[in-house]
Design a protein that fits this description.
Layout: E1 4-13, E2 16-25, E3 31-38, E4 52-60, E5 65-79, E6 83-90, E7 92-95, E8 106-115, H1 118-121, E9 126-128, E10 139-141, E11 147-150, E12 155-163, E13 179-192, H2 193-211, E14 216-231, E15 234-244, H3 258-261, H4 268-272, H5 276-299, H6 304-322, H7 326-336, H8 341-348, H9 351-354, H10 361-368, H11 374-378, H12 385-401, H13 413-434, H14 439-445, H15 447-455, H16 458-464
Antiparallel strand pairs: 1-2, 1-4, 2-3, 3-6, 4-5, 5-6, 5-7, 7-15, 8-13, 8-14, 9-10, 11-12, 12-13, 14-15
Helix pairs in contact: 2-5, 5-6, 6-10, 6-12, 6-13, 10-12, 13-16
């Protein structure tokens, strides 16, 4: 299947007119403008011209106005000294907008149709009825109410269920019914479009954390509440279509996710209870870097050494939010391990910790892996926590700095994968706790992962640390 959409048009670049093709790649979200032009005054393409432009305006061959934003020249080619070709990559396209500067592209509302979020929202409207024995299949659709969250004084985020278009003609072999959930982000005051994506990133990270799935944007519509038609005394807002480099258009049907739902850390109704979803948005900036480090390996294919280092940094950041000063940390340790003075002595008199005014990673890990989660109780972690902390510290130092002194002390191969599994369990458990989930809830949700850690004897194998 051809994944590139090519549209010709005329373009205004830095006050000059050009003709060229706009290319959008459906699979990776690439937005490219290809321009051919002649210039007898310059022997080199785009000579002494800016390589970055905030916006490029154009008119497509279909007579539709459009604006490209955040544009960059990525390729220049010259033939016979006068025939020039430039390739421009843009981050966004807006269709139907009148000519305006990037900073004035503001909206009151943006709507995002997403993939891989429907099962998580639990806003299914279809239901199969079994009250009439004469019908072998009896399906009805009852729309669910949207879920709305007031994020701040200017912003509301809504999860809106919708039944998709369907063909009422039943005289066909294949009858299709579909439904989806869109994310509506609303601003009371007109706001530049970039701000909507900042809010959307928070939503995407929330769902990715819960589902362990990559979330794609498949459609974007923008609304300006000052632009509308009146239809029978009702405002019909004009919807401007936008294409972003963050979009991934997938024509395939979403896979059956009934099994995966059992493994979600939480779903939308669970987050919406007791204002946990409000907690997510209120505390997002505080934990932003931790979320990004944890989710990087889910959103991208990265080497396992990088995944391990990211998770180690994430769990260290989590701990440092609570304990940033050594004096407070030592008081905490002395109280926590009052019945285990050996651990207190090991932390306080460790030569690296003793000689430093800050809390070293090794000390943090000893505290982190002696917690209330079932991992500590069930995997015999507590009695081996010092050795375990030593191995993970040496491993982090090696994979971060590649110090040869740590080469033979770090985890490798399967033990590296086991360390990642334990870190994922630990980081996600701490995040759930910070969001307000109870210990019983966390241990229940993590039971499958914990059973896997125990059955594979991951703790024991890491402690053995075979090469």
């Amino acid at each position: 299947m051809k994944k590139d959409t090519v549209i010709g048009g005329k373009w205004n670049i830095l006050g000059k007119k050009y003709e060229g093709d706009l290319v959008f790649n459906k699979s990776n979200g690439g937005i490219v403008l290809s321009i051919y032009y002649k210039d007898h005054n310059h022997f080199r393409a785009w000579d002494n011209q800016p390589l970055y432009m905030d916006e490029i305006t154009g008119i497509l061959n279909q007579k539709i106005n459009c604006i490209l934003t955040d544009c960059k020249i990525v390729k220049r080619h010259t033939q016979a000294f006068v025939k020039h070709h430039i390739i421009i990559v843009a981050k966004s396209i807006f269709f139907g907008l009148p000519k305006r500067k990037k900073q004035s592209i503001k909206f009151n509302e943006m709507r995002f149709k997403m993939s891989n979020i429907f099962a998580w929202t639990k806003l299914n409207g279809f239901k199969e009825l079994f009250d009439n024995k004469d019908y072998w299949l009896n399906i009805v659709y009852e729309s669910k109410d949207k879920i709305s969250v007031k994020v701040d004084d200017n912003t509301t985020i809504e999860f809106v269920p919708t039944m998709g278009a369907f063909n009422p003609n039943m005289l066909v072999e294949n009858v299709k019914l579909n439904q989806f959930v869109s994310i509506y982000i609303k601003k009371d005051i007109p706001t530049i479009y970039d701000k909507f994506f900042e809010d959307l990133d928070k939503v995407i990270n929330l769902i990715t954390l819960a589902t362990n799935k990559r979330i794609n944007i498949s459609k974007i519509e923008c609304l300006d509440y000052n632009k509308f038609y009146m239809i029978e005394n009702t405002k019909d807002y004009i919807k401007y279509e936008m294409i972003s480099h963050k979009m991934k258009l997938d024509d395939s049907l979403e896979e059956d996710s009934r099994i995966e739902i059992m493994d979600y850390l939480f779903d939308l109704p669970e987050m919406n209870s007791d204002n946990k979803i409000q907690t997510w948005f209120n505390t997002y900036d505080k934990y932003r870097n931790i979320y990004n480090l944890y989710l990087l390996g889910i959103k991208n294919d990265i080497p396992i050494e990088i995944r391990f280092s990211n998770l180690m940094q994430a769990i260290e950041l989590l701990h440092s939010i609570k304990f940033s000063k050594k004096k407070k940390f030592i008081k905490h340790i002395e109280k926590k391990f009052i019945d285990n003075p050996e651990i207190i002595d090991d932390i306080e008199n460790n030569i690296d910790q003793k000689d430093n005014s800050f809390i070293i990673l090794r000390s943090r890990l000893i505290d982190i892996f002696t917690n209330d989660f079932e991992l500590t109780k069930s995997a015999n972690m507590y009695i081996n926590v010092i050795q375990f902390a030593n191995i993970l510290t040496d491993s982090r130092n090696y994979y971060t700095h590649y110090n040869d002194a740590k080469r033979n002390k770090c985890v490798v191969k399967d033990n590296l994968k086991y360390s990642i599994a334990i870190l994922e369990y630990s980081v996600s458990s701490y995040i759930l706790r910070e969001l307000g989930f109870s210990l019983d809830y966390i241990n229940k949700k993590q039971k499958y992962t914990l059973d896997y850690i125990i059955s594979e004897k991951m703790i024991e194998k890491i402690l053995e640390n075979k090469r």
